[in-house]
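Design review, sub-item: ligand-bound model
Attendees: FS, YL, KQ
YL presented the inputs for the magnesium ion complex:
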Amino acid sequence: MKLLGKDKEVSPVDTQFLADLSDITTVGRYQVIRKLGQGSMGVVYLGRDPYINRNVSIKISRPNANVPGEKLEKFRERFFLEAQSAGSLLHPNIVAVYDAGLYKDFCYITMEYVDGLPLARFCREGHLLSISKAVEIIFTVCKGLDFAHKQGLIHRDVKPSNIMISRSGRIKITDFGIAQVKSEQSSSKGLIGSPGYMSPEQVKEQPVSDTSDIFSLGCVLYEVLTGEKAFPGENCFSVMYKITHDEPTPVRVIRPELPEILWKIIQKALAKEAKQRYQSCMDFAFDLRVALRGVKGGAKTDKIENVVDYIQSVPFFEDFSKAQVKGILNSSNVFKVSSGKVIVAEGEIDDSFFILLSGKASVRKGAKRIAMIQRGECFGEMSYLSGQSRAATVVAETDCIFLKISAMLLDRAASSIQLLFLRKFALTLIRRLSKF
Ligand SMILES: Nc1ncnc2c1ncn2[C@@H]1O[C@H](COP(=O)(O)OP(=O)(O)OP(=O)(O)O)[C@@H](O)[C@H]1O
Ligand SMILES: [Mg+2]
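KQ shared the predicted structure:
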């Protein structure tokens, strides 16, 4: 396809591209078994790693034809840099990147092979998933994205074809990092792929942050629930206009049995202003979990099992075993408070303590802000340790999710758990004191 401007879609995968790959049998050390699919940036093959003796997926890309030598070098450089950063992501819901290399004048990347289907297959009328299954999938994608965001990586191309569902029901996000190369190619060549899931800031070519992925995931949630695109359009230009100016059709117009809460969640994820959206995927996941509770057959994700992994990844709990976290969760509460709300008030008598799981909070004495609390830090432990009333007020600076643990529970817990908590409290105190 030729490209002329932003309203034109292009694809480097043209007849020449495919012809140049027609005799492919090996790529690097990998045997090519068969073609799995094709996207706007390249072709994906099922391959076999003869050394490790496992199946892999091989994605082959090449910059647009007629790119001068210098740009070609730049493309390759970027490609490998992105493969490297994606390669550092190890999470059960993210397709692992194994290797990258050159094949003729193509670049290739080998990844974990997912024996299954992309979510795109279930975003069509007649193939829709149950509401609870659809929400559970997006909940799981939130967990993978949250992990990547905490490592400083933004996906930039979250869409149904980049979410794979394995035969055994595992959910894996693919194509991390590739979107950056794609967008760089796009800006010089027109738009590669569909803009249907881009955030308004991506459309306007403004800097993006984690909340851009949240917008894209909001589009996916809309589509997996309704079978229709949140921002449909005849061409790229009309889609991009809708993303920046229009509200999508309310989901219940399309699927009346959808609960109102899901529409509220979608609207928050799809806010045009990044600041109005969920500020973290954990925050997004929390609301999806609440919605699931109300959906028939949706109790599964509510199971403690799903939350344990996340909590274990929070710095405070890194030394706790899965069983210990599970035990603590069984007798504690996960709470969400909106930005601006008081969590703990100075002078209050209460000996429970808290661990911030997501968001930011501030410690205040009178009107003065004396410290900030970040994700994974505890607060309120002084009352527990000293038996005094609260010495300061803690206010949510953003929407926050935290774990509230009662002192009574800790007193009844096994001594190994008590010791772990006391050690963490001591480390927290040392860190706080070292700041003075
Ligand atoms: N890790 C994988 N394991 C198994 N199949 C995969 C894997 N990655 C991609 N595929 C298959 O290859 C197809 C093409 O993927 P590709 O990423 O090239 O394009 P896309 O995501 O559909 O679109 P675009 O290039 O516009 O982002 C996918 O739809 C999927 O069916
Ligand atoms: Mg893809």
